[in-house]
Write a structure and sequence with these properties.
- This protein is of the alpha/beta class.
- It has four domains: about 120 residues, Roll (Diaminopimelate Epimerase, Chain A, domain 1); about 110 residues, OB fold (Dihydrolipoamide Acetyltransferase, E2P); about 160 residues, Rossmann fold; about 100 residues, Arc Repressor Mutant, subunit A, CATH 1.10.10.
- About 35% of the residues lie in helices and about 20% in strands.
- The chain is built from 19 helices and 19 strands.
- Strands 12-17-16-13-15-14 form a six-stranded parallel sheet, sandwiched between helices. A five-stranded mixed sheet has the order 1-2-3-5-4, sandwiched between helices.
- The chain starts with a helix and ends with a helix.
- The relative contact order is 0.07.
Length: about 550
């Protein structure tokens, strides 16, 4: 029919054939949907993921099992085998998304097969229906023995920078085609890209259109089937992209476009950092979380970030006994500033280092201003050897010989401020700090469950006025995620932006909430505060990952230490 359509001279004949093809295509989709739904129902009952997924069904059309197997293999990231059973025989289609050699696997099971063929990533076979059980056992055993320890891997042919991506390069690559088994189309990757724009496209909004940049160059990218991942991709502070470059021609205009294969969050922060850009977007949270929490911690102040850098860096990360190493460093009679991730840590650590003996002091925003000024003055004069504080609590003019990062700091602002406060920088933090910090970050970026419970508690309260603290306590009893007063304020602001309610808080922390009727149901992503809070969280998580895992030489480069 396809050939007849292309060769048709009469428009009416072509229309008739086209209608018939559309009808057949609709039938094919129905057949695929039936097989897919039955297979996914079986997947939902798995207690664990097998080394290879094998399914058999009566009444399945053998013409669609290959398509379903291919999609399922991509989705599950394991080899997939589907068999359509017809009477006493079964016809199978097999697909493998990575290094597992499907053709070799069928060779190992050929005693159960009447015929088979294919290659390492795709194969077909026929076997007696009575042999299905033995075949499934044999191929599962073979897959379990051959499964790579590292799991599914996307093979990248080369890492490339945007400055080298040109139409001429794409044309040179096309000269290597045709693509197929044994000559796959090359896959490139570019690292630490900026996502400048992300929008959903397609009839069902299943696809994602991106504008990504590296340095001064930017490209459009199309990610088919990645619509559900828009939030994660758009909020990445740095994006690693696997893609194939293509020439896109539309309405006489030619442009180079990236077809996205996969993505992950980048693991490096751009070398060039400007103080004003670090957390300027977090300024919008000021009105939400003030006045009862230390909101300025999350705000990068230009005046609080030092332009200087240390002359030496000592990498003592992940030491077994952190406190013992800290005591050794601070008892060498060298003035020291100890940078900590949370303000509550400062008094506890200072107490352990000799607060009562006058050997250590701490800064905290709840200290009266005269006391803070006196502590800093005595520390700078050498009367107090050790000062413990969050970096952004340290006065801008304060400088010392030695800065010790005791635990994993939460923001890029913290790191730049700490590094600019002394001549020597000691890294004493540990990767295990990430989990504790993750809990802290959850309080400033409540998820759907937490925000939903805020609404539930208010609705059941029938308009009863609660304090922010009591509301936070009620929500905490309903969820496992940590909840703080500012978590509730952010949740209330999100609900207000979605038109669910309006609220005010008096000077005593009591809430007055008006629950309105929701005219149109809107997703949380429609709230600017929700998007902002989760972007701040992601920025901080990327920061922690960088300083926990980056090699020491890269950290020296980051801080400008030669």
């Amino acid at each position: 029919l396809g050939v007849e359509l292309l060769l048709a001279d009469d428009p009416s004949d072509a229309g008739r054939i086209a209608d018939e093809l559309l009808s057949l295509n609709a039938v094919r989709k129905d057949l695929e949907d039936r097989v897919s739904s039955e297979v996914m129902a079986a997947v939902s009952e798995w207690s664990s993921v097998p080394p290879v997924a094998v399914f058999a069904g009566e009444g399945w059309h053998p013409g669609v099992t290959s398509v379903v197997a291919s999609r399922l293999a991509d989705k599950l990231n394991i080899p997939v085998v589907l068999m359509a059973v017809e009477g006493e025989a079964a016809r199978g289609s097999a697909r493998s998304p990575y290094r597992f050699n499907m053709f070799h696997a069928l060779e190992q099971c050929q005693s159960y097969l009447t015929e088979f063929g294919g290659h390492r990533n795709a194969a077909g076979f026929v076997l007696p229906a009575a042999a299905i059980g033995e075949f499934v056992r044999a191929i599962q055993e073979h897959a379990a023995a051959m499964a790579p320890a590292e799991g599914p891997i996307l093979e990248i042919d080369a890492q490339i920078v945007f400055d080298d991506l040109t139409e001429e390069l794409v044309q040179e690559i096309e000269r290597l085609s045709p693509w197929g088994n044994g000559n796959p189309q090359p896959v490139f990757c570019a690292r630490n890209l900026r996502v400048e724009r992300a929008r959903l496209v397609g009839k069902d909004q299943q696809h994602l259109k991106l504008t990504v940049a590296q340095g001064a160059r930017r490209f459009e990218a199309i990610a088919f089937g990645f619509g559900k991942e828009m939030g994660d991709i758009a909020s990445c502070p740095a994006l690693d992209l696997a893609f194939r470059p293509e020439i896109n021609e539309w309405n006489g205009h030619r442009s180079l476009e990236l077809r996205v294969i996969d993505w992950r969050e980048g693991d490096a922060f751009p070398r060039r950092v400007t103080a004003g850009s670090l957390y300027r977007k977090a300024l919008a949270l000021r009105d939400v979380i003030l006045p009862n929490i230390d909101s300025d911690y999350w705000l990068a102040k230009d005046e609080g970030i030092r332009a200087g850098s240390p002359s030496r860096i000592f990498d003592l990360r992940d030491m077994p006994d952190r406190m013992a190493h800290l005591r050794k460093l601070v008892h060498e009679k060298t003035p020291a500033f100890i940078a900590v991730s949370t303000r509550d840590t400062a008094p506890r650590l200072a107490l352990g280092l000799g607060l009562n003996d006058g050997k250590a002091a701490f800064l905290h925003p709840h200290l009266p201003d005269p006391d803070r000024e006196q502590i800093v003055k005595r520390w700078l004069a050498g009367e107090i050897p050790v000062l413990v504080a969050q970096p952004l609590d340290l006065p801008e003019e304060a400088r010392t010989e030695r800065v010790i990062v005791y635990d994993l700091l939460l923001t890029w602002s913290d790191w730049l401020t700490a590094a600019g406060a002394g001549k020597e920088l000691y890294l004493l933090h540990a990767a295990v700090d990430q989990e504790r910090n993750r809990l802290t970050l959850k309080t400033i970026a409540p998820n759907r469950r937490v925000i939903g419970c805020v609404y539930t508690v208010l609705r059941k309260g029938q308009g009863r006025r609660l304090t922010v603290e009591r509301l936070a306590g009620s929500v905490q009893r309903l969820v496992e995620a940590p909840v703080a007063p500012w978590t509730v304020r952010i949740g209330l602001t999100v609900l207000a932006e979605l038109g669910v309610l309006s609220w005010i808080e008096d000077d005593g922390g009591r809430l007055e909430v008006d629950l309105g009727a929701v005219a149109v149901r809107r997703g949380l992503g429609c709230s600017p505060t929700f998007r902002l809070a989760h972007r701040v969280k992601r920025d901080s998580l990327a920061c922690q990952k960088y300083f926990a895992l980056q090699p020491a030489d890269d950290l020296r480069t980051f801080f400008g230490v030669i």
